[in-house]
Design a protein that fits this description.
mainly alpha; globular; single chain; 15 helices
Length: 271
Amino acid sequence: AAPAAGALRRLGAGGAAALSAALDAALTASGPTADPWVHRLVAAVPRSPERDDVLARHIRHRDLALGAAVLEALAGSEAAQGAVAADAEAALVADARCAAWLLAVQEALVPVLGGEPADRALRRAVADELDLLRRRVGAGLAVRHGRRDLGDALRVLEDGTGEVGVAVETVEVVAGSAAAALALPLLDRRPDPHERLDRLRDALPGAVGASPPEDPVRVLVEAARGSTPSPWLRACALAAASSRGAARRYDLAEPRRVEDPVLAEQLAAVG
């Protein structure tokens, strides 16, 4: 794969234009769990107007990780304009809503999960999905406002070391208060999860209920299809429910509609 990716990069902008149709076809055909080679293709095709037009159509890809790779590939030194900028802004709002929902579920899971292997896997899957949403938010800001003005601040926030306060102020100034209110609860690692959730609730009135779900595992299993939960997170929730003997009491119609081999394996085990 590495030599192939290098060959694509050496094609330059002209080769990127020729590859744009193949790139679009690969992204369109990929489901909620894309093959690794599609991620590599997104990163390998050189920048060109044709490539960027294709990538802009897939910012909200069904595979959140592939969508993050798309955003990272789109981010340049300068701020995006036009439809790409609008799509990046819309993605920020959607990702913040997903994060708020997932933080509320995570909070409700604390008294529910124990030390069983399935419980540990679910706890880790929730944390990984929040990390992925953080990655998407940072990449989306880089697309919308350019790496020249935000790149250093985003790197500091990702590392969690250095002048974090200055990085936070930079995001607030460059991205504006409304976007910063959505992004910083994820990008700034200093607040605890409860404080992050409160801040997102303030920024997104009505997006997340005030009371936590009574059965957060059921919420993850039965959630309507969308960008959250991912098939892997849903499969981990189903495994945790199965370990308690609760999975048969859940409505499995929605997870059965998701095309994912790991989730299908868990559903087959439930029967």
